[in-house]
Specification:
Length: about 110
């Protein structure tokens, strides 16, 4: 399937798909004319990449964990630990945002006319 077809099938942009390739998250083959061609399995892979990005993982982290997620035979306890580490990072960010919100709400209350 061509890049436009994959973009349509996954609801992402062709630019994002090219970025995923640049980051080593997605692979395509090139036609003689230089067009990218993806296997049907790319739809599932792009959906997984989008889910991992939405979960707050960076593209470099996704590149590290993707093989363990997609290939059960090489899955080790390292994957769970890496994901726990990412969860902890996100929870720290949430806590920081809660503190920021509390301070800002106090300022709003103090300076409200």
């Amino acid at each position: 399937m061509r890049i436009g077809d994959l973009a349509t099938a996954t609801g992402t942009s062709a630019r994002s798909l090219r970025y995923y390739e640049e980051q080593g998250l997605l692979a395509s083959e090139r036609s003689a004319g230089g067009q990218r061609h993806y296997p049907e399995s790319a739809v599932e892979r792009v959906t997984l990449i989008q889910s991992l990005l939405a979960a707050g993982l960076s593209s470099s982290t996704i590149r590290d964990v993707l093989p363990c997620i997609t290939e059960e035979a090489i899955r080790t306890p390292w994957l769970a630990e890496r994901l726990r580490s990412e969860l902890s990072r996100v929870e720290d960010q949430i806590n920081s945002l809660h503190r920021t919100r509390t301070i800002l709400a106090g300022l709003v209350e103090h300076y409200a006319a």
